[in-house]
Each structure stands twice: as C-alpha cells, then as structure tokens.
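Here's what a typical entry looks like (Switch-associated protein 70):
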Amino acid sequence: MVGLKEELLKSIWHAFTALDLDRSGKVLSHNLCTVLNVPHDPVALEEHFRDDDEGPVSNQGYMPYLNKFILEKVQGNFDKVEFNRMCWTLCAKKNLSKSPLLISDEDAFKVWVIFNFLSEDKYPLIIVPEEIEYLLKKITEAMGAGWQQEQFDHYKIALNTSREGLSAWELIDLIGSGQFSKGMDRQTVSMAINEVFNELILDVLKQGYMLKKGHKRKNWMERWFVLKPNIISYYVSEDLKEKKGDIILDGNCCVEALPDKDGKKCLFLIKCLDKTFEISASDKKKKQEWIQAIQSTVSLLRAGSAPPHKEARQKRKELRQKLQAEQEELERQMRELQVANENKQKELETVRKQLEAAAARAAEEEKKRLQTQVELQDRFSLELEREKMVRQKMEEQVAQKSSELEQYLQRVRELEEMYKQLQEALEDEKQARQDEETVRKLQARLLEEETAKRAELEKWHLQQQQTIRMTEAEKQELENQRLMKEQALHVAMEQLKQLELERKEALEQYEEVKKKLETAANKTKSWKDKVAHHEGLIRLIEPGSKNPHLITNWGPAAFTEAELEQRQRNWKGKKATST
C-alpha cells in the first residue's frame, strides 16, 4: 500500500499544483473520491475548505486531509488509467506546451504517466538522465530503430550542466520534438509509446494473437492474449473491447509444450488448479517466447518478486543511490583532504615561525648564558661564605637541642614518679570506699531491725485499741493481756533505745569514714592538678561512677531496694509466725 500511495501522490501532485485550490480544491477532492472508489465525506470536505482564516487550504494543509480521508481508504479496486486521465485532464491544459508536437495528446498522456512511474520520489518531480536514457532506449527498440548513444551523451552533458533532470512537460517536449526518433512517422512513434506504456504502466509482459481451444465445443478460435504478472486475459481483438476470459496464474501453474495434433502446430498447454488451456502459436518462435514468458511469470509468483520492469527500476534506483552515496563520500573525503592540507600548511607555517623564533631565542639565550655564568661565579663565592656561617649556627642549635632533650627526659622521669604516687593515692581512696561500704551494710542491718521493731509496736498498739472496745466481761482478761503486752512493749522500747544508741555509733563511724574519703579525694585532686601542670602526659585512672544510694530518715543507706524488699518479706514472715 505504501508503493501504491506514492504512485497516486505523484499524479495528484501534478493536478494539485495546477489548480487554484481555493476555487477548485473541492472539485479535485470530489473527483479523487469518485475515480478511487472512496466514499465521500462531505462534512470533512466542507470543514477543510471553509472560507475562514483557519481553513488549511495550503499545500501542507491539504496533505493531512488527502491522507486521512482519501488515500488511507483506497483499496486498489479502481481503474489506474482512469485515475491518471482525470489528473492529466486537470493539469495538462495549464502545463502542456503550445508548440506543435510529433505525438498526439493521447501519446503525451502516456508519456506523462510513464514519467510519474520513472521519476524520483522527491518534489518537485523530475526524471534523472539515467531514466531518460532508459525510456528513450525502450521507445527506440519498440520502433525497431538503432539507439544513438553518442547523440544522447551530448544531450546528457548539456543537460547536466544546467539541471539535475527534466520535468514531465519537458520530457513530453523532448519526445514530441522527434530529436531521438528522426525518420520515424507519427504512427510508429505512437505504437512504440503505447507498447512501452503497456509494459511499464499496465504491467503487460507480452501480448499477441494465438489460437485457443474451447472447453465446451472444442473448437479453435483466434484470440488476442495479454500476459500480466498474475493473469492472462484473452480478447476478441487487440482493441481490448470484448474480453472473453482470464487465466489466473499462481505458483502452482505450469506450462508444457505439446506435439502437433489435429492439424494444429506449435501447441503448448497451461495447467492451473481448476482448468487446463490448450493454445496454438503462429510459429515455433512465438511458441517458445510465450512458454518462456509464462514460465518466468510463474517463477516470479513463486518467489514473490515484482515484475521485471519494476524490479529493474528499483535496482537502477538503488544503484543511483549507491553511486550518489559514493560520490558524496568521495566529496566528503576530498573536503577532508583539502581541510587537512590547509591545516598542514598552517602547521608548517607555524613551525617555520617557531623555528625562526627559536633561533632568535637561542642567540639571546647564549648571550644570557655567558652573562649568567659570570654572575653565578660571584654568587657561588658568596653562597660558600654564607654556608659556613649557617653550618656554625646549626652546630650551636644542635647543642641547644641536646640540652633541651636532657631536660625533657628529666621531666618525664619526674612525671613517672608522680604517676606512682598517684596510684598509691588511688589505692587509699579505694580502701576508704570499701570501708564506707562495710559501714553502710551495718547501718542497713540496724535499720532493718529497727523497722521490724516499729512494725511490731504498731501491731501491738492496734491490738490494744481493739481490746478497749470489747465488753466488760472481756475487759479483765484483756487487761491482763494488756499488762503483759505493756511489759513486752517496755522491753521492746528498751531494745529500741539500745538500737538507737548503736545507730548513733554507726553514724559516727560513717562520719569518720566519710572524712577519710574526703581526705583521699583531696589528695587525688591535688595530684590531678600536678599532672595537669606537667603538660598532661599522664591520664588519671579514676574509679567508675556508682548508682545513687537510698536515703532514709536517719541518713544515707548502704543497701539497695531489692535487699530492703527481701528484708520486709522476712519480717512479715516472722511476725505471722509469732502471732
């Protein structure tokens, strides 16, 4: 479909460029829909050609409409000759030369269609000299004349100096002028153009009169046969007005030569899937030509190849593209060589200037070198004297550094002695902390016993309060028990006082230990100051931090919450046992 679209576009382009689109664009679109068997879309047509400023009536604006509403709907079921004739009618009157030509308007139309087939796929359309030569050769061979290569070479040289190729109308003028058909009458030229038109445009590979055997009455009738890439049509006469039938060709068809029989000579057989056709040629040469032509057509169908003239056109086009690419590559290389040569010349000129500058600099440098040599000799003498003085200063500095090193070593030894004393102070502090821990444990034990006694007293007090509320009958008995409990309470109070005295003694011991700890801490602090004063060469080793201690009503405790809870559980158990 892409190749078909390109072929249609070339003919449409001629018609489109020949019309005043504002007035005749609708006519062109309507005619295209008619000859291409495409449904009309009047709404889209009116929308496209509306008269306001937004209507896309330009060349670029018309192409989207043409592609979307016409070309994309083409199915191929249309008469190509009628389509080309419609486009020819719209453009021929405006572009066809007014001067008399040796060919008729019908022949000019066929040349125009052939031009569209052979022209390049770029706009504006032109036919290159190679294709012009190919077409003129085909027409000359069809006329039975000899090809004048030298004459065409002169024409080609003159053409290449002015332009790349010819337009359709210039090609018509060239063929109609008779420049390459001198000595031939109008009818011979017309027949030659018609033969080339049939081959290139109508895909007629071969045509001619032969006898065909009927399928029903088995009689032999003369028919005009036309061979195309996938069909053989046969008509009553060569005017093609009355078609009698078609022989559909495909890859399964074959053709065979038959021996003479029933008084018929030059027989051959065309076998298809559904029918078999017996045909008689006029002579052996025609028979062999038809057999070979049909076999070639069937071979192309099996291979899925294009007709010979279309394949040849594609090869010529690819060859031109290849030659053009090689020419462009050669020109690019020549430009690169030229640029490289210019760059080389610039580099050589630059090198020459650099050599001249280097020679001048070398002479200047030699002059400076001699002058510098004298200056260096004087400077060397001064440097030698200066070096002697520097050496003496360095020896004095070495002696001074040795003295400073000895002092530094002495300071290190002092710091080591201070470090040992600091370790002893830390040991004293550690022992004081251990003593403090022992006193705290003792204090905790006394506190536990005191707590137990207080709990027991509170319990007795509660029991006494309950006893007072009893009846008179029980008061005497309870009174006796109260007396006994008061005695026990008195004993407990005595024990409590004793515990109070022991607690005070423990507090005094704790204060003594605390003073010792403060003394050790002061010593440690003094050692820290000394170490800091001696440049911090020794890092102090201090005991780790401790968790905060419990505080009671009588001072800091030496036990943890877990130990206190365990002792409370023990007291409760003893109290339950005593009651």
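The chain has four domains: 1-201, 206-306, 307-394, 407-438.

More examples are in the samples folder.
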